[in-house]
Amino acid sequence: MKTLREIRARGAFREPQFMELGLAHVPFDGLAGHDCVEQPIIDAVRAGSSAAIIGARGGGKSSALAWVCRQLPEDHVAIRVPVVGMDDPSDPAVLGSVALGAALEAARAQKVDVGTREEEVIERARADDVTRRPSRATAGGKIGGGPIPAEVAAQLQSLDIEYSRGKQPVDRLYGLDRLLGIFTYHRRVPVMVIEDTEAALGAGVDDAARDRFFANSLKLLIREIETPTIIAVQEHFTALDSYAELRPFLFETTIPILESEAVSALRAIVAHRLEFFDIADGVDELIDDQAWPALKALYDETNGSIRHVFAALEVAAAAAIDNGAPRLEVGYVRLGVEDWRHR
């Protein structure tokens, strides 16, 4: 029972924060036995394309995206755009402002002073040549996971001063252009990362706002900005006409549903999560062999939701702890599965 208490205390069965997801992720390329998700995305981004990771809710899109961010070349810099709670995600100027703010926040954390020379460089590094009009139908976008380099951070802080004092024009895309210009000057590739399109829109969003988000805001990053973007997209959004307009400019890959190999894949995923949280006992000691068919059934019913599997394990662990059990027997796991079936 000590191990189960450690699992609960450390939140091992809860979803980690985005940057931790990359460390806790087991690549689908390995689980499926061929390059189907992560490596193709990396190759596409290296080639200068924007990309979309498509899948069901809880299927592993965000964790795959976080893992990819950590595997990109050193000259790529991931800028995670915090879309949740955005005032109006369907307004491209708002999205551009939030993306700029995310990059500036990363630079601010570096606490690098800006000198006169850096300010002069910013003025020379105008971004007229790194943005393009929508009519130019070339695929754009990139992504990366490194920190903001010091020399870039110094110049971004000068832009930050303008940004915080409201010295920029009303059009915040001006600031985004300058941001890209600074990176380009230093031969760095900023990569815009949007990990959850559904969370960006929020619950109960109307169809018109949803379509504007794809047709306007995402279009800004994917078609009009000369730097790569990676987005995680729920499957049901791919049927939208507004998404279809972006498709020619995206490299797409879909999270696979692990069918015949699902049990072994789920074992590997849970085992890696336990290792990531420094849980001493292995998956075989912790979970009854007879429990895996129940977890696979939940995985199948939820269209490949790994998040639901971990949620069921969390409920199972709580029940086992309450009853003084040392491990997750099949009955506790079935209880966790039923709990999530009725939510």
Task: Describe the protein in words.
With 343 residues, the protein is an alpha/beta fold. Helices cover 53% and strands 8% of the residues. It has a five-stranded parallel sheet with strand order 2-3-4-1-5, sandwiched between helices. Helix 7 crosses helix 8 (150-165), helix 8 packs antiparallel against helix 9 (173-185) and helix 16 (306-322) crosses helix 17. The protein starts with a helix and ends with a helix.
Main attributes?
343 residues; alpha/beta; Helicase, Ruva Protein, domain 3; Rossmann fold; 5 strands; 53% helix
Level-2 CATH architecture of the largest domain = 3-Layer(aba) Sandwich
Helix count equals: 17
Mean pLDDT: 79
**What gross morphology would you assign?**
elongated
Terminal residue distance: 27 Å
- The ordered string of helix (H) and strand (E) elements is HHHHEHEHHHHEHHEHEHHHHH
Number of domains: 2
CATH topology of the largest domain: Rossmann fold
Residue share in β-strands: 5-15%
Low-confidence stretches: 110-146
Helical content (DSSP H or I, runs of 4+): 40-55%
Class from secondary-structure proportions? alpha/beta
Strand tally? 5
CATH class of the largest domain: Alpha Beta
Kindly provide the radius of gyration, computed on alpha-carbon positions and rounded to a whole number of angstroms: 22 Å
**Strand adjacency order, main sheet:** 2-3-4-1-5
Q: Outline the biggest β-sheet.
A: 5 strands, parallel
